[in-house]
Task: inverse folding
């Protein structure tokens, strides 16, 4: 197992043109706080350049002339300015924090909402850790741009202008000497800026991939797999390599960030020595007074402090812009499922609606349509990202009459689950139409569709929270009595009552504190609480033993009566109770009809019956769990003994 190194296309990616302009647009809601920040920054900068003038006055007019009144007055003014500067810095801090945290909130919520609008194919490709990194590390980087960077740029720029004006007022000669070194700063700053941008992007990518690795290894399933296969030493080595890459890129980034500061400090020291030499000669020659030299020396420190800050800010700005660019990269992903402005609301007031597939063809989108290379830790080769996949659903047409049950059967990979995804509009067909209640799903509002359609998948997912919260997720405001009734119908209430905390029991990561059958029954109870008009069951009883499954089937028969149901069936009990059976193979409907009719044909369904359902019948003998199944199956076999021989 090796460490995956990000592709050069990811780490060498340049900033998208317009990133700066777009990032500044996030300041619009905080115009007042920006004005406050600028105001207090102006106050702070004016105080900064006023203090050297006070030094000149106190030396030339006070100390040199032994005028204690001037000394006392200047000292009082300095104390007052210090108090005002304290207020200014508090004001700066508040305004800066409000802007930074506000932009952070806006970015985080907009990216979160946008990610949730992406199709399922996006989530099957993107690593969770990489997504979390965008919402954490990159948002913090963007926040820095609106706090530290914004404050420093405004403050440093204003201070620099005021200091230069004051220096030229006191001595144009020393001011010119101080400024002659500016080209020595600009050239290395431009060269280092490009390196900093690349290393900043690479550091973010490496951190995201390390986070993805931790996310996979620390969740319950990943931890169990790691323990069962006993590859601890190798896993530790992989993580150490990733952490080492983060360390190494961090060292390089810090070195380049500090390089400008070191260069500026050296240049400032040289210029200070020159100013002392030239200025001292001018004082000795009585060209200007000692106070002026002291003031110029103080101003010189205030000149190079903002230059140093701005030199360092280039690296910080570049890193912040990379953070914004990575966030905007996600926001530029166009969701495949869009709600039309003219979308109508589905309604179940007139009973359960029917479902119709009309010449539906579908293929799963390729990576370049739904994902980003920087979100996929494996950095897929371009061939895999661009190759068009083949159709998995091919010109499928069928109807599910209102209030009836349609069972989907077929070999693994035939396209059964894909059909259920289209009913829930997790994807849109490439051609053809899926309708519910006569409405094209592309013309209905998503909220009304999700309210109408209820789904229980084969691998039921539970949040790391209480059973109560997981049940209430289906319908907020559900009472405990309603939860109890749903759990009784799903045959899970007795289990919940036996738990020490009952409904308030925390189920753990992905519900791993419960058995597979218990998780599945809670998912069924959650479906019953939702009360959908159209039900999709993707092997919803796959994890249940025969006795529990029989109880669930009885619960479905009562609770889902009159609802339109599409069921992926691997159990004979489900098939026998279906009003219609569709045999799916190779993305097409190969056969359709009722159980006895399809057995009579002697085709694919009869073959599946022999290989799957008869085995279940044999396993069920003696326990009475599927008596009804056996009776129906025996009658069918008796009439079709020749075809099953």
Result:
């Amino acid at each position: 197992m090796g460490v995956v190194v990000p592709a050069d296309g990811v780490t060498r990616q340049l900033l998208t043109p317009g990133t700066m302009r777009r990032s500044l647009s996030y300041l619009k809601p905080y115009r007042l706080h920006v004005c406050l920040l600028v105001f207090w920054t102006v106050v702070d900068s004016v105080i900064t350049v006023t203090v050297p003038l006070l030094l000149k006055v106190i030396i030339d007019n006070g100390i040199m002339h032994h005028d204690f009144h001037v000394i006392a007055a200047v000292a009082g003014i300095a104390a007052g300015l210090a108090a005002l500067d304290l207020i200014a810095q508090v004001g700066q801090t508040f305004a800066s924090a409000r802007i930074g945290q506000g932009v952070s909130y806006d970015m985080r919520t907009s990216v979160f909402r946008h990610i949730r609008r992406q199709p399922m194919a996006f989530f099957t490709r993107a690593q969770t850790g990489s997504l979390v990194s965008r919402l954490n590390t990159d948002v913090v980087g963007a926040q820095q741009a609106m706090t530290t960077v914004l404050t420093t740029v405004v403050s440093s720029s204003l201070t620099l202008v005021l200091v230069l004006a004051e220096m030229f007022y006191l001595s144009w000669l020393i001011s010119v000497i101080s400024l002659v070194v500016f080209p020595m700063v600009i050239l290395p700053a431009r060269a280092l800026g490009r390196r900093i941008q690349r290393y900043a992007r690479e550091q973010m990518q490496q951190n995201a991939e390390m986070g993805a690795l931790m996310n996979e290894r620390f969740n319950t399933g990943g931890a169990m797999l790691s323990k069962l296969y006993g590859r601890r030493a190798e896993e530790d080595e992989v993580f150490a390599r990733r952490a080492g890459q983060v360390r190494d890129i961090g060292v390089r980034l810090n070195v380049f960030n500090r390089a400008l500061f070191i260069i500026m400090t050296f240049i400032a020291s040289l210029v200070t020595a020159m100013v002392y030499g030239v200025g001292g000669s001018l004082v000795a020659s009585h060209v200007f007074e000692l106070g002026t030299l002291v003031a110029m020396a103080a101003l010189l420190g205030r000149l190079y402090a903002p230059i140093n800050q701005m030199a360092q800010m280039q690296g910080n700005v570049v890193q912040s812009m990379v953070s914004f660019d990575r966030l905007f990269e996600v926001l530029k992903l166009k969701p495949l499922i869009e709600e039309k402005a003219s979308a109508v609301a589905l309604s179940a007031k007139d009973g359960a609606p029917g479902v119709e597939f009309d010449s539906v063809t579908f293929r799963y989108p390729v990576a370049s349509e739904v994902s980003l290379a920087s979100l996929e830790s494996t950095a897929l080769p371009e061939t895999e990202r661009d190759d068009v996949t083949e159709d998995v659903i091919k010109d499928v047409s069928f109807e599910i009459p209102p209030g009836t049950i349609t069972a989907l059967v077929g070999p693994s990979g035939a396209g059964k689950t894909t059909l259920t995804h289209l009913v829930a509009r997790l994807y849109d067909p490439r051609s053809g139409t899926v309708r519910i209640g006569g409405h094209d799903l592309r013309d209905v509002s998503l909220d009304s569709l999700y309210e109408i359609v209820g789904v229980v998948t084969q691998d039921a997912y539970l949040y790391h929270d209480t059973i109560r919260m997981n049940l209430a997720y289906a319908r907020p405001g559900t009472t405990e009595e309603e939860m109890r009734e749903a759990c009784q119908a799903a045959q899970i209430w007795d289990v919940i009552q036996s738990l020490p905390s009952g409904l308030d029991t925390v189920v753990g990561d992905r519900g791993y504190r419960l058995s597979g059958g218990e998780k599945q029954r809670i998912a069924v109870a959650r479906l019953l609480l939702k009360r959908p008009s159209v039900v999709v069951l993707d092997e919803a009883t796959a994890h249940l033993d025969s006795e529990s499954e029989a109880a669930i089937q009885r619960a479905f028969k009562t609770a889902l009566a009159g609802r339109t149901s599409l069921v992926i069936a691997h159990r004979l009990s489900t098939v026998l109770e279906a009003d219609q059976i569709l045999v799916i193979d190779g993305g097409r409907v190969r056969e359709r009809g009722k159980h006895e009719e399809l057995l009579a044909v002697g085709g694919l369904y009869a073959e599946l019956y022999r290989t799957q359902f008869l085995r279940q019948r044999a396993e069920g003998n003696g326990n009475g769990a599927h008596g009804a199944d056996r009776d129906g199956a025996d009658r069918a076999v008796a009439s079709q003994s020749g075809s099953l021989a």
User: Anything to note?
Assistant: The chain has two domains: 20-330, 355-593. The two ends are 49 Å apart (CA to CA). The first strand starts at residue 355 and ends at 362.
